[in-house]
Amino acid sequence: MAERSEERIHVCYCGNEKVFPIILLSAISIAKYTTAPVSLYIVTATLTRINEKFVAIDPSRADIITDALRRGNADSEAKIIDATDVYEKVLGGGRNENSKYTPYTLLRLVLPSLNLCDKMIYLDADTMCCSDLNQLWQVDLSGYEFAAVRDHMGQHFIGKDYVNAGVLFLNFPEIEKSGLFDRCLAKVKGKKLFFSDQTVLNKYGKKILRLPRKFNEQRQATEGETVVKHFCQGIKWIPFHVYNIKQSEREQVRQKLKIDFFEDIYRIYDELQAKYAFEKGRE
User: Fold this and answer.
1) Cα–Cα distance for residue pair 116/121, rounded to 1 Å
2) CA-CA distances (angstroms) from residue 149 to 154, 236, 245, 256?
3) CB 3.0-4.6 Å disulfide test: which of 40, 162, 172, 211 passes with 158?
4) Are the C-beta atoms of residues 87 and 103 closer than 8 Å to each other?
5) pTM confidence score
6) Each residue of 37-78: pLDDT tens digit?
7) CB of 53 within 8 A of CB of 282?
8) Which residues pair with 240 in a beta bridge?
9) Would strands 228-230 and 119-123 be described as parallel, antiparallel, or unpaired?
10) CB neighbour class for 266 (10 Å; exposed up to 12, middle 13-18, buried from 19)
């Protein structure tokens, strides 16, 4: 176990009950490679007025995530934050609630108002660590609003510096000073956008630190070299097809993505499922 003297890492996911299993897998991967204590926040909301399946993650799930994290460091902890009221106040009825992406992606734009910490690593639920996340935490954010990796496809078709919002290292004091998220929230609520919050972060972010792709690898992943693997949608050109394999699809990960180093993570997930029966009654 790590010593208490190690700097605490603050990590956040946003989502609903449906994505809890892949958030758990991601949390287990953090604990596998990261010995520093982790404070992990899951920001959720009940948005059944939009879709009956948009139910907040049960607060009891925090115990499961904490159990997973403490396999890496006994001082790690998880907290589930219900931001339904905050969402409805600043984003309710907005133009992007029924887009290709769920409104839970927009929750990352309310993170500054939750006053959780000064800097935070935001991860999409469909991410997995392949080495120590502390490598990202140690990046110097001085003078930057946030750090991110260029989008694999967007850098070619939208602009060479266009970044992917699935992994963000956020500097809240700088964001507050520039008013970045206030501008983003206003635009997302008032105008229909194809990539919603990712679009506005690229449009209005003026102090973005662009990181090496190992911090948000959107294609191949190598254990010990890749820091975060992002299981986002991809394209195979020959033969042409679109794929969208998530880390929970174990055989697809093994056979199609050729990733074979998550086996111990899957084993721990199964142990936690046997202990807590959190999949009982799931569709």
Assistant:
1) 12
2) 11, 21, 20, 24
3) 162
4) yes
5) 0.94
6) 999 999 999 999 999 999 999 999 999 999 999 999 999 999
7) no
8) 237
9) unpaired
10) middle
Q: Which amino acid is present at 156?
A: H
Token pair 């850098």 in the structure block, residue? 155
Query: Count of H helices and E strands in the chain?
Result: 10, 11
Residue 5's H or E segment, with its range, is none
Report residues of the chain scoring pLDDT below 70. 1-5, 237-238, 241, 281-283
Angle between helices 180-190 and 196-204 (to 10 degrees): 140
Residue with tokens 């930057």: 144
Task: Give the position of tokens 């993505």.
Answer: 257
Residue 223 to residue 201: CA distance in whole angstroms: 30
Using CA of residue 278, residue 250, residue 80, residue 82, what is the dihedral sign?
Answer: negative
Q: For residue 24, give the nearest of 42, 9, 6, 51 by alpha carbon.
A: 42
Integer Cα distance of 28 and 13 in angstroms: 13
Report the Cα–Cα distance between both ends of the chain, in Å, rounded: 37
3-class DSSP assignment, residue 246:
coil
